[in-house]
UniProtKB/TrEMBL annotation:
It comes from Streptomyces tropicalis. PROSITE patterns: LUMAZINE_BIND. NCBIfam families: PRK09289.1, PRK13020.1, ribE. Gene3D superfamilies: 2.40.30.20. This is Riboflavin synthase. Its EC number is 2.5.1.9. One of its GO terms (molecular function) is riboflavin synthase activity. It catalyses: 2 6,7-dimethyl-8-(1-D-ribityl)lumazine + H(+) = 5-amino-6-(D-ribitylamino)uracil + riboflavin. Catalyzes the dismutation of two molecules of 6,7-dimethyl-8-ribityllumazine, resulting in the formation of riboflavin and 5-amino-6-(D-ribitylamino)uracil. Residues 1-96, 97-193 form the Lumazine-binding domain.
Length: 200
């Protein structure tokens, strides 16, 4: 489990095409400290497994399903990525419960800067809109954010200078894809209510 509090802005150092999969080599001095084979690291919000670890780099295999359902397929050597290690039991939950299981992708539609923050509008797949509410939580490229406005096909978030400086959302431009993970609690509630014969 992750919290959506990005630990560092890492970099893709190599991408190997494996036909029905890809192997990524990524640099991240913070997240690789103490990393071992089999450990999990969230890359732009996608939970990946460490295959190899050497120095401040690690490799992870990404199957075709993940490449198709997330924005990881658009990564290339030199791409910047958000990195986070799983939260430790007993640690502070600074963001919200994040699984690292991407529900879909959106596209940055618009950026509106102001003096102390920036509002970013992101497209929202129709099948995810019911899980997104104003003042609720959403994960964008692995970043735990609060929804400002929730529309039928988009939502907005306000980004503080720290988020702009330390995550990929400071770099993303209109047209760029982002990974989305909605609040798992909303999906569980929906499922439970469906088991009682419908929503109320």
């Amino acid at each position: 489990m992750f919290t959506g509090i990005v630990e560092e802005l890492g970099e893709v150092t190599a991408v190997e095409d494996l036909g029905d999969a890809a192997r990524f080599r990524l640099r991240g001095p913070v997240v690789t400290e103490g990393a071992r084979h089999g450990d999990s690291i969230a890359v732009n919000g996608v939970c990946l497994t460490v295959v190899e670890h050497e120095g401040d780099e690690f490799t992870a295999d990404v199957m075709a399903e993940t490449l198709l359902r997330s924005s990881l397929g658009a990564l290339a050597t030199g791409s910047r990525v958000n990195l986070e290690r799983p939260t430790a039991v007993g640690a502070r939950l600074g963001g919200h419960i994040v699984q690292g299981h991407v529900d879909g992708t959106g596209t940055v539609l618009e950026r509106t800067p102001s003096e102390h923050w920036e509002v970013v509008r992101i497209s929202l797949p129709a099948d995810l809109a019911r899980y997104v509410v104003e003042k609720g939580s959403i994960t964008v490229d692995g970043i735990s954010l609060t929804v400002v406005e929730a529309g039928a096909d988009h939502f907005t978030v306000s980004l503080i200078p720290t988020t702009l400086a330390l995550t990929t959302l400071g770099l993303k431009q209109p047209g760029d894809p982002v990974n989305l993970e909605v609040d798992i609690v909303a999906k569980y509630v929906e499922r439970l209510l469906a088991g009682q014969g419908g929503t109320r």
